Amino acid sequence: MEPGKPDKVQVNADPLTEEQPLHTGRTSLEVLASKLNRRSKLSRIYSSGAYRTGALTHLIKQAWYKEVENGISFNLTPVFLSVGILLYFIAPAEPSFYAILLGAMIASIIWLKTNSRGVFFHLIMIFALVFAGMLVSKLSILTDATPIIERQMTGKLSGIVIRVDSNRRGSPRVLLKPSQIEGLVKEQLPLLVRVSIANRDIEVEPGYEISGLARLQPVAGPIQKGSYDFSFYAWFNGIGGSGFFMGKPDITNSSSVETTIGEDAQIWINTARRSIETRINHAVAGPTSGIIVALITGNKTMIKEDDQQALRDTGLAHILAISGLHMALITFTIISLVRVCLSFFPTLVLHYPVKKWAAAAGFLVATQYLFLSGAGVATQRAWIMISVMLCAVVLDRNAITMRSVVISATIILCIDPHSLFAPGFQMSFAAVAALVAGYEIYRDRRTAKLAQQRSIPGSSILSRGYHVTKTYIGGILLTSLLAGTATAFVAAWHFHQMATLGLAANLLAMPIVSLLVMPAIVLSMVLMPFGFESVGFTLVSLGIEWVLHIAKWLQEIAPAAITGKLPQVSIGLFAVALAGCTILKSRLRWLSPLLLVPAMFLTPNQQSNPDILVSENGRAIAVKTDTDDYTLLYPRRNPFVTNIWAKALKIAEYRAHNLSETQCSRDQCTYQLSSGKVLQIVYDPDLLKSACNSADILIAPRLWWVNCRSKKPDLILKRHDFEQRGAHTIFLNRIGSEPGKTPIHIETALSDYSRPWHRDVKPKP
Known about the structure:
The chain is of the alpha+beta class. Helices cover 51% and strands 12% of the residues. It contains 24 helices and 18 strands. A hairpin with a 6-residue loop joins β9 and β10 (621-624).
């Protein structure tokens, strides 16, 4: 060591920068201060970047571990089961049963053999559930197969009546099991056909045998591509055709047609329903009788159209469909009555599980209501959900949990996979999932709040009354808000409209329905065997009148908002957001609503509206004008179809056709398009030659053969095109056509590929 020089201090390498200290003659205190200063600067840089990323990753991992602890694997079962069902039904070709079965077996075996619960385990679980969804869909196709009437035909029809209701004109309409259809062999007979009778005074009941000359045709397909497919759901219900009797059919009250035990049960139940409908019509006069019939038996054909429209526009149409709301109100009304009656016997209450007895009584009444209402698909779903909840009560488990909803959805998807696409399934489970998730959040917060309090507030009678009233009103408001929000996108997707004042309508009407209408219906059904059902039906009618007044008053203030046809991406984002908000339990739940932002801004582009729309039967034809509105070439035909077109395309009103630019008769119609092209619609074959010479687009909905020799139009659509592919939407001025031809793009309601529920129409020889 040299005199006059400071000692050299050996400092270890900095673990942060991995640099050796510089021996510049500084003291150890100065070196340490320098290191600390440099470390603080680097720590600030780290905390603003890498540290935040690591913290976010850590929070996500913590949230995911919490989801795994809460059983997210089980809660996601119906979600990925639905993915498999969706993939099967949208497949461009029929998937192989053996390929699906093999994939499901391999994925299930690997899933069961996996010991860890990591990422690989959950990925294999997803694959197994997707294959399971495809498998149950394929099995439902194999078990529900029924022949389809391929094209319009006329012949003698005989069979036994299974069910009777009314069509839109008020004429009787029967669901018939055919024993003979002229022109078809036994193997080609559909399981069921729906046939109307023109004579309103004719008496026909379930179990009668009926025969006569009938015009039959396939069940109509979608109004346009992507809309509700009537033929799809009819096929799964065993209905292979529809039509009407030409003249008065022969009816006998005894039948020689062989029926199964299930069909005999249906006939007996439908006979009882018809008897109840008759007694309701005798006890109640006026338009409310049709709504009472709908609430008890599920038959909505007797409701006036303006009443239905008012309920639709205000978001109250759900009270007409027997679903979870009605099943729950009926069931829990019975449970409450049983528990109140048993409370007068203290010995029973103290020594026996009267709560379970009441749940059993509610289950019996719910099952009776299921069959009395016709056991429709929506009612079956509601019964399964109620049964799962009552089973939880019997097993001393919490009935209102997301697990009950998951079990119900899984059972329904396994029994009826096609119900995934039904509006009733989507709206009911969207509403129930939102309500249960909201109830769980409220229950957890209320439990935590009461745990912090030493005593329950509101010990006086007035305070308790105020607390109960506030809770009830808040519950109705929260229920309407959650259910309305959850079903708004689904309603917009299927019906192309949203209730503007739906929250206010439900807030005003639902107390009447839950506290007056449904309990009075229970009272009426109890008094009916004694002949005093009019007492209860008077109260029901009074409540329904109040509901109709509320609906029509709000309809005048703010009619329903027309949304138009939404893109498929928007409903997909909404489904994912809803699943995340309801199934997730951790903080990840609050990230799910972010998906609604792009879903709300994905609105249909009105500039992409088609130039020509033609219905499946060729009777309704709409043409786009130069002002982007539409002209109906035959305004009085098919108002049902044209109303759906107006909502889907956001058409404010159809312009009355101008005789100077269109000349339409019964057999031919000529229209000058805004592009200068000539549209010809021909129904008479004798006018075909002249139409070929002048038409750029030729549509012949009733003609099998169209042979334009002198001049061939740019587009020809004939009867076989509509029978095979359904309704057509035509877009003009599209890129990709032949030189010299009008650029044309066509979208058909039915796809070009054949699936089991599609009619396979061959060209007529």
